[in-house]
């Protein structure tokens, strides 16, 4: 089965990491990837080492990009063209009109986006989404939010995300807590985490934040203003997430909203206790006081109290981490995701 994945770039992000994990696990040279801008991330470098075929559509002219995409789809005769993110979905939807021999699929990765602020996009996206032979949502909440937005009765299939297991667990815990978040906006709630940590300065030694984005400078200013400059380190983008997770006592996710967060699943696979905000689909993954702790980030002090409690209670932390791992292993490992995607491709091809 020949598959072309279309994605904006291979910079670091949830959709990119999911596709990266899938390509490595599927271990098939029949997967190609079309990108709209060059990348130098470790994800991209690793895939090029594995001789995964990339199609570079980096022209500034969108018409040139589109023509190149259509030519490649026709020449390579892909069974499936699978788009991820915006504007990749727009290019793929229009290309489907000129490439009738391939099946077109789109994965919705997020519960919201900026386009949903403008009514004109509702009309445009109704047309765009109709062009796909299959639409995947990475969670039930993502599916529900998409259907509410489009206000149309279209078929959307839920396939939950999956991640590779972090198998090397370090017993030497260097960091009290870790968070992994894109800093492109304030959606991930890192500002909330910093404020909560300022309430318990004397109760933790260090915290690390993995990720980068335009909000980083503002967050650094906030960190310093809260007197946390000697306790909280921003480490940028890392290619050793597994190692950093295994060296941490607690994983914290203080997001304002989420799709189906890969970082949360990675933490579960690393067997570390999790504290997460009670939003979107997180409560469907984490059962409070069973395989993690859920908090209301809008209630001042709730997150900081949970952090303080877990740092003091080693037995509880171990129990939560073990149950989190079992949840991951039975539901969210990359093998399950790959099997479900393969079944979906086969189903769409036969339709």
Automatic annotation (TrEMBL):
<dbReference type="InterPro" id="IPR001296">
    <property type="entry name" value="Glyco_trans_1"/>
</dbReference>
<feature type="domain" description="Glycosyl transferase family 1">
    <location>
        <begin position="167"/>
        <end position="326"/>
    </location>
</feature>
<feature type="domain" description="Glycosyltransferase subfamily 4-like N-terminal">
    <location>
        <begin position="13"/>
        <end position="163"/>
    </location>
</feature>
<dbReference type="Pfam" id="PF00534">
    <property type="entry name" value="Glycos_transf_1"/>
</dbReference>
<dbReference type="Pfam" id="PF13439">
    <property type="entry name" value="Glyco_transf_4"/>
</dbReference>
<dbReference type="InterPro" id="IPR028098">
    <property type="entry name" value="Glyco_trans_4-like_N"/>
</dbReference>
<protein>
    <submittedName>
        <fullName>Glycosyltransferase</fullName>
    </submittedName>
</protein>
